[in-house]
User: Fold this.
Amino acid sequence: MSMNPNFTLSCPIPIQQYPTVLLAHGGGGKLMHQLIEQMFVPAFSNATLNVRQDAAAIALNGQNLAFTTDSYVVRPLFFPGGDIGSLAVNGTVNDLAMVGARPLYLSAGFILEEGLPMETLWRIVQSMQQAAQAANVQIVTGDTKVVDNGKGDGIFVNTAGIGIIEYPQIIAPQSVQPGDVVILNGDIGRHGIAIMAVREGLEFETTIESDSAPLADLVLQLLAAGIEIHCMRDLTRGGLASALNEIAEVAGMEIAIVETQIPVREDVQGACEILGFDPLYVANEGRFVAFIPTKDAEQALGIMRSHKIEKENSNLSDINPCIIGYVTEKSSGIVKMTSKIGVQRIVDMLSGEQLPRIC
Amino acid sequence: MSMNPNFTLSCPIPIQQYPTVLLAHGGGGKLMHQLIEQMFVPAFSNATLNVRQDAAAIALNGQNLAFTTDSYVVRPLFFPGGDIGSLAVNGTVNDLAMVGARPLYLSAGFILEEGLPMETLWRIVQSMQQAAQAANVQIVTGDTKVVDNGKGDGIFVNTAGIGIIEYPQIIAPQSVQPGDVVILNGDIGRHGIAIMAVREGLEFETTIESDSAPLADLVLQLLAAGIEIHCMRDLTRGGLASALNEIAEVAGMEIAIVETQIPVREDVQGACEILGFDPLYVANEGRFVAFIPTKDAEQALGIMRSHKIEKENSNLSDINPCIIGYVTEKSSGIVKMTSKIGVQRIVDMLSGEQLPRIC
Assistant:
């Protein structure tokens, strides 16, 4: 091979504007979107990557598989309702579930900082194994690296996952149709607020626990019941607003949602007000939106309401799956929301960094 | 689920002795081995994980796949003969190759430190893409996280890989037989010394370049020719000595090697003497051992010698595939070496940390 010819190509991110990586480049909003769309996707360009889903759908001798990866850098490592270990399993399981795959196998890559208490590692490893059992996946391969003290932050965990796609429907933004309803599987904002409450030392009357949970079993029940799911997305970094914007943009559709239909727990709403956050942009780890034709909406809601989310300490009364809006028409891809006082406004993708290191 | 019952289990690593994670826990030697065998394998226990290979062999509706992951934390990010990007592709491709799989798909997970120059990221991304093209794999899914300044070290890259196993033979330590010859595909020690030379500011008459290279094409040529490969292992962290010890232990066989048969370039040998390293323990990123029955040895060597390693700036005259030893008998699993002066000694697994952050 000749001497790296592409090294002469100039950086696709405007260096004058962004000479260095900012926290917001990992925040799930506009800057991360720019990095993915302008750098990673063109550089690694191939038909699979270009589908822009949380998991890649790959064909392997006639077998349809899903493949995904996520690194987890959440601080603190342990928080009400979860820890970096269970998050690393649930997050990757959920990325597979969002393309309709049955998660089967995970890898686990650890980047440990010299000086991490061995007991901390052990707690995290056990939490991963419990989460893997709950989600019915096996951790089959792994790797351990240690970086010198001061060059990491305790522990970072990467998981990659393989799932099998058993249903023929293409679950992707491209399948979204005008008239589809947007179903949300529960209240939003708990994961992000649970993390921030610990970081800021805030105390509420009740402890706000992360909603971190595996979603694959519920999704597979929906598919088994014949629900025609067009698209799904879990509401992690960037929250509900960013997820809907990504889908609207790729689908080239307008999405209209109704603020009063979006469940937010009172304590979460209160914490958002204190901290200056908009719950629409706060990360969740057990919440997703599904785009479904009207004909299937009631049945889907019924299945969601009767499903026991596999989650410790889950207060089921908080979870209230509901229709929060619908796809109105082909458009340039915007999200509109009718606010509590009846005014319609555009809901944009997250700009800047709302909550760093939330997952 | 009830309240984490396993959290009451005590840590399987003796806390009095190892209260915290040490650099050596990631060094590829005894402490990493202990961490894997005493913590990860029992915790994540399943039939696949227990095979103790670089890649897991998984069956999926009758299709045999290989699945592996590695995180890369090498310092410096760029070094003679490679960089963290090409290393992250070649390393994972090689782990798949070592179980006889044809590598097909990779994931890419980035953990970026706030403040990383955008141009640095771009150079690494391009290098990954070039390495992926050279190894004939596609990067189909990815993830980006950003950690605050001072909580990372520029960039860490995780790749996971999926390959397809097209040949029926089980390539694993368990398949090793007495009488097998041990073939090494080239000179050892260049990757580790290339890294250390940059770190220590050492200058040699010629630049020592990393041997980082993708090995899958060569391995697939051996398999296609009908070579009965019993086991392979690439010689990364812990070097040749640790790889042979791992295989000897799992196979329950004694391996005898001959020091004068192991190619080490003169400049590498000289650098090892200056730095106080034993080349047997220095990391490589394009070298592997193959355990092959005597009948196939000549043919395998012929294929290796005529194969053009897909590597920039590779000085092919350095690469001299050769037989370095053989499997003598069933035993408790030790590696013996006849030294240059004709004395036989036991070659142990790396203890402690020889070269931190080499990959």
Observations:
- The longest helix of chain B spans residues 118-135.
- Chain B touches chain A through 95 residues (CB under 8 Å).
- Helices of chain B lie at 30-43, 84-97, 118-135, 190-200, 216-224, 239-251, 266-275, 294-306.
- Confidence is low (pLDDT under 50) at residues 1-6, 310-314 of chain B.
